[in-house]
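Two proteins follow. First one:
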Amino acid sequence: MPFKSLPNFLNYVLWADAASCLACGLLQVALPGSLQEWLGLPAALLTGTGVFLLSYGAIVAFLAARLRGPSPIIWILVAGNIAWAVACFYLLLGGGMQLTTLGEVYVAVQAFTVAALAQLQYIGMRRGRAQLA
């Protein structure tokens, strides 16, 4: 049975989204100075987006725990992930930051990860089995 036909497909995708946000958020909040040096991103940006990612990840985890069928709120998550991917690509294409090579990799991985999560959330919603309990 293909993974996307599993009954809890969207739940798994939401848990992956939550986990990736919480991991990146924790990293960025815990090590902004080191990451600034390694990635070429300002510490304030890393801290601010880290706090956002921690909050967003907690909300997505809450939603994943309560998901039962179609819910319009998941479309907001899809749009948010697309917006995050666009912002990452903007940084990669010269968004005014002097990223290191590691910084380019970090931002590119985030861009592709959230774009993939948005696509998977879209697939889960199109299957029509996402409703909050």
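Second one, unrelated to the first:
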Amino acid sequence: MDTDKHILKSFDSLLVKFRDDSLLMASLTERNLRNAMQGLLQRDSDLCNQVIVDDEEIDLLEKQVDQNGIALLVRFQPLASDLRRVISTMKLVGNLERIGDQAVSIAKRSRKLNKASLFEDTRCLEPMFNDALAIFKDSIRAFVEGNIELALSTKAMDKHLDEQIHELSDYLTSRMGEQPERIPDFLNLILIARNMERVGDLAKNIAEDAVYAASAEDIRHPKWAQKAEPSVQ
């Protein structure tokens, strides 16, 4: 019996399962993000409720991927690129779970807005949602393809999203003085905008992990790393 071949086959099988579950989790997270925002824009509270229910599946997948990741590390002790891929994927699903939580928060706040009368300022959030979703999709694609250039491009996209959201928050705050009776609604819109800002931040984290998985380069906190690096005499 060829033990090496048997071990390699077991490793490959578990690695495929590990990868497929993480990609499924990414797909479900994207669907929940879309549904949460459509629940707001279309005033569809049933869609908001579905987001909350479907988040449980995302949470279960996170646990499954983590368990398989630990099994891969303990049983096979992978080296080099395989090790980076396992570690990065475990970090990926953690960020996906947090993005799923942001979708749930959007859905819950959207239900509150849907109970009130039609609120035209809700449409102001749509461009920012599209941008946040674009960052998310690009980060996942960069991770899957090992596309470092695409991963690095998400930084500028996230900065642009942050600027838009800060401008929107200022605008909505000024609108409170014009419609004080709708202050709770304006506050919910601002909080939803901040949820989308957080989605962008988490997607950028995924892009950083994509760079690490592809090249073994840690691009987090570059200014801090430069200051902390000891000088060589």
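SUMMARY FIELD: Helices lie at 3-41, 45-76, 80-115, 126-145, 148-178, 183-215, 222-228. The chain has one domain: 8-219.
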